[in-house]
Amino acid sequence: MESLRRLFVSSLAPLSASSLPAEDEKGGHLEPTAMTTPKPFPLLALPNEIIQQILGHLRPLDLVELSLTCHSVRAHAVNDLLWANFVQENLPVPQSSPSPCHTWRELYTAHYPYWFLPRHKIWFADKAAVGNGLAGQLIFARYDSRLGCIEAYRLVAEVGRDHKAELWDWRPTVEIHKFSPKIRLFLDNPVIKLNLGDLSATRRLHQEVLMQREADQRLHGIRSMLFLSRAIPNELQDSTMSLWPPSIVPATNRVRNESPTMFKGEGHKPQHADQVCETNFRLRKWSEFRSQGGRSSVRMGEDVLTFSTLPSDCYIPSAEKPYQGIWVGDYASHGCEFLLLTQRSPKETEQQDVVVPGSPSTYLYEDYDQDGDTSDTEATTIETEDPPGCSGRLEAIKLTGDPHVPRGEYTWIAEDIGKGGLIRVSDERNFKGARIVRSWSHIAASGFRDGNVVLIMISHDSLAMYWKAFGHISFYTRVNIDDYLNLES
């Protein structure tokens, strides 16, 4: 791509000396001849359709640069079909019109450089907006074509009124907590609302964009500003840095999430377009109290939230990895919490050599049954090969958390969901046909050594966990991401 760009730019370079009118010995210009007539730009001699195809491989900023070379090139660079593609590639649902803008180029320019927000869709933060900071938050970003704005809302879940319990036929002393979560976007208060005209004409890379809402018209309230971040190169990262997301979370880039200056220095913000980190951003939040008439105000409680997205290949299920995705789980008194489930093949597990401090992966599962009862973890079903989609390691990482196990931490891991970790196939009424595999978890303690649990694999969209220490079974349900990206949700 870069070689194509250089080739095209070089073809539009200023005229060479050989193409300029020749001079006589006294410095005067000779009359143009066939040999001295200026040559046309080679690329512009191509058919318009070919030129448009070439321009379609360039980046938006490249088109802007090329449009400054001459009027003929500008006529091609501002073709609205090119700019329509730039907008559409950032949206999960194609748009039929640039409305309320007049052209696609106008629409793209209005929200540049924040089109990565709806493109990546899923964002999770290192802190909650209010309350327990370790809880974090999960937001979904989308484009509202009715208003021409980019918006993002928190995804929330409630257990539901039918939260009842029944007893497990396999162990009548164990309660099964039914789970029917009510999942929705919290539309009353957008985390991000980027309207047309919110971005300044200059210094967009450094600008902190005030999120205007109806609530901001009141005397008091929580204010916020959106701004860009810069990634920390892999070679400069070390264990002493506070980075987001944590190392256990799959990520393309990582950024700092602690700063003594609250990220106000220029070094924390991109200085040019190539430094923009499109997988992370920040929100500055504070409480503001205004006097009557709004002539004076007091600002306090300032904090900065750092958001990160997830690579799509780590949460989109496939035939080989049908369990990975975004899930919601029942955590009793802590309520519903959102998780990332990643499924690693046996080969990936060996290559990445995943090690968690305090994990019992080097111990026999029977060894850490605290009460000496191994009836729940002894294998009674033997498989000679892994069933389709049931192999490798299944990791559950909290995207939102609680004070005991905060966001960005493992909540449980099944080392091998294939034949190596299988205990049995359930034949009891409660979970008939489900695979029951060995697992370990992070309960309110350091490391994972006290986390004796058993994973019950009901289907690709439903899992359950037997928490032996608590004497109950709770459920996990897959979140259908597309349900919350349309404007009717």
Q: Quote the distance from N terminus to C terminus.
A: 39 Å
Taking all Cα atoms into account, the compactness measure Rg is 29 Å
E-strand count: 22
| Helix share bin | 10-25%
Strand content: 25-35%
How many helical stretches? 8
Helix and strand content put the structural class at: alpha+beta
Unreliable segments (pLDDT under 50, ≥5 consecutive)? 7-25, 354-372, 445-449
Q: What is the H/E order?
A: HHHHHHHEEEEEEEEEEEEEEEHEEEEEEE
For the biggest sheet, the summary is: 9 strands, antiparallel
Shape: globular
**What would the average pLDDT be, to the nearest integer?**
83
Write the layout of secondary structure elements.
Layout: H1 2-11, H2 48-55, H3 60-67, H4 71-77, H5 80-88, H6 104-111, H7 116-120, E1 122-125, E2 137-144, E3 149-158, E4 165-167, E5 175-177, E6 182-185, E7 192-194, E8 209-210, E9 220-228, E10 243-244, E11 255-256, E12 280-290, E13 297-308, E14 325-330, E15 336-344, H8 346-352, E16 393-398, E17 410-414, E18 422-425, E19 435-441, E20 452-459, E21 462-467, E22 472-478
Parallel strand pairs: 5-22
Antiparallel strand pairs: 1-2, 1-13, 2-3, 3-6, 3-7, 4-5, 8-9, 9-12, 10-11, 12-13, 14-15, 14-22, 15-16, 16-17, 17-19, 18-19, 19-20, 20-21, 21-22
Helix pairs in contact: 3-4, 5-6
